[in-house]
Amino acid sequence: MKKIIFFLIIVVIAGWALQNYSSVKVFDYAKNYWQRIDWTALKNFRLPNLNTPVATPIPGKQLNVFIRDVGFVPNNSGLEAGGKVTWYNEDGRAHAIIGEGWDSGGAIAPDKAFSRVFDIAGAYLYHSSVDENIKGKITVQ
Would you identify the CATH topology of the domain 62-140? Predict the structure, then answer.
């Protein structure tokens, strides 16, 4: 820590000397640069609340599927009966999930999610409303 403070003092003294005894105006450059920085992003910054407990899903009872421009990730997964699948839309456009006899009840906007519980064993095929070639499969055991 003492080395860092000593280094900072040397930098300030060198900057002061350059500012006063040469054509290099270090502090003027720094002031100019400092004023051009856009600080609005920092005003809206919030640290996450690390004291909030987050439930850990039971393996086999929770599956997260991510909707991306390339498709569903993962697009073929297994799940225990009674397990919940949550689709998170990480794409730039809205997607509706459509399966045989079920759907997401409308479009899932970007940065939003949809969850469904699968109680009955079987294979559940689904696709996106944006492109029917974006397909996925959930096998419930």
Answer: Immunoglobulin-like (2.60.40)
